[in-house]
Design goal:
Helix content is 29%, strand content 29%. With 325 residues, it is of the alpha/beta class. The chain has two domains: 175 residues, Alpha-Beta Complex (Quinone Oxidoreductase, Chain A, domain 1), CATH 3.90.180; 138 residues, Medium-chain alcohol dehydrogenases, catalytic domain (Quinone Oxidoreductase, Chain A, domain 1), CATH 3.90.180.10. α3 packs across α4 and α3 crosses α9. The longest helix is centred in the last third of the chain and has 14 residues. The chain is globular, with a radius of gyration of 19 Å.
């Protein structure tokens, strides 16, 4: 089968096409005929928690069940499936892949395969940040930095599904206009840590939850944007800044909660819990047609290197997907 492997050279990631054997069914896994796969920036960042060199690339896929491994129940050949692909020797940038059954989700009827491939990584990360750990309620405000990123858009849409009010930051007014069509309530045009005063002005008391998709350069400003008992989720660090100062007096006096969102050290049970929660709390909105994932652009499989270049251009709003014919 055709596949693309992640390779690293002189601190940069590139994609190498290879022909490899189709995977055999394994215990607790589905063999999936991949129809579409999503791109994730974290996988391309050398030194990042998602990066793994010399493996088939891609961490999420959508397609049909091709074969069922031993011990798997409730799935049949031909079922439409989407989910995260986990393992050192597998990936979604291939014609077939192995998917752990605890990551497998049924594709809602209204969604195309490309839309389904845009969901598993970004929306499960957003679910953990906004719902499971963020505890956002419908009477609260959420701030999302780098809101046009794939996880940023997913966080905005998740917040609106819950009925909360959402503020997003971006350096591009055009991107904020797109996000407004997805329900985002307020946009702040900035690439700098200078938005706390505006957040306080909009919310009066501050944001109840800040989802930081940018990194250490705005961590302190996110904290200054919080209301009493506010929470801040660190989802990524695309700015390349991995450290930030922490104002312990502000943290202490305001009972702030600081947490990170990553699957890199989670066991099977915790990964499964995220999927179960997402399917229960958020996926019905997709099934009912209330929301669709925001796809920036779809590339053909043979154009995957161009899709990677588009991802690294920072011009997209939402998800970049490859269609595997």
């Amino acid at each position: 089968m055709k596949s693309y492997w992640l390779k690293t050279d002189e601190g940069r990631t590139f994609l190498e096409p290879r022909d490899v054997p189709e995977p055999d069914p394994e215990v607790g896994h589905l063999v999936v005929r991949v129809r579409a796969a999503g791109l994730n920036r974290g996988e391309m960042i050398v030194g990042g928690v998602m990066h793994r060199a010399d493996k088939i690339g891609g961490t999420e896929a959508a397609g049909e069940v091709h074969a069922v491994g031993p011990g798997v129940e409730d799935w049949q050949v031909g079922d439409r499936v989407m989910g995260r692909v986990i393992g050192h020797d597998r990936g979604a940038f291939a014609e077939y892949t192995l998917m752990p059954v605890h990551q497998a989700m049924r594709v809602p009827e209204p969604l195309s395969m490309e839309e389904a491939a845009a969901i598993p990584v970004s929306f499960c990360a957003a679910y953990d940040a906004v719902v499971a750990y963020g505890r956002l309620r419908d009477d609260q405000w959420m701030l999302v930095t780098a809101a046009s990123s794939a996880v940023g858009v997913a966080a905005v849409q998740t917040g609106k599904i819950l009925g909360a009010r959402v503020i997003g930051t971006s350096g591009s007014p055009e991107k904020l206009k797109v996000l407004a069509t997805l329900g985002m309530d307020e946009g702040i045009v900035t690439r700098s840590p200078d938005f706390a005063e505006r957040v306080i002005q909009i919310t009066q008391d501050g944001a109840n939850l800040a989802v930081n998709c940018l990194g250490g350069s705005v961590f302190g400003e996110c904290m200054r944007s919080l209301a009493f008992a506010g929470r801040i989720a660190t989802v990524g660090y695309v700015d390349g800044v991995h450290e930030a100062e922490l104002d312990l007096r502000r943290l202490h006096a305001n009972r702030h909660v600081v947490f990170g969102i990553s699957n890199s050290r989670l066991g099977e049970a915790d990964r499964a819990a995220t999927v179960t929660g997402f399917v229960r709390d958020i996926l019905p909105a997709f099934a009912e047609g209330k929301v669709r994932p925001r796809i920036d652009r779809i590339f053909s499989f043979h154009d995957l290197p161009a899709a990677k270049a588009h991802l690294e251009s920072n011009t997209q709003v939402g998800k970049i997907v490859v269609r595997i014919e």
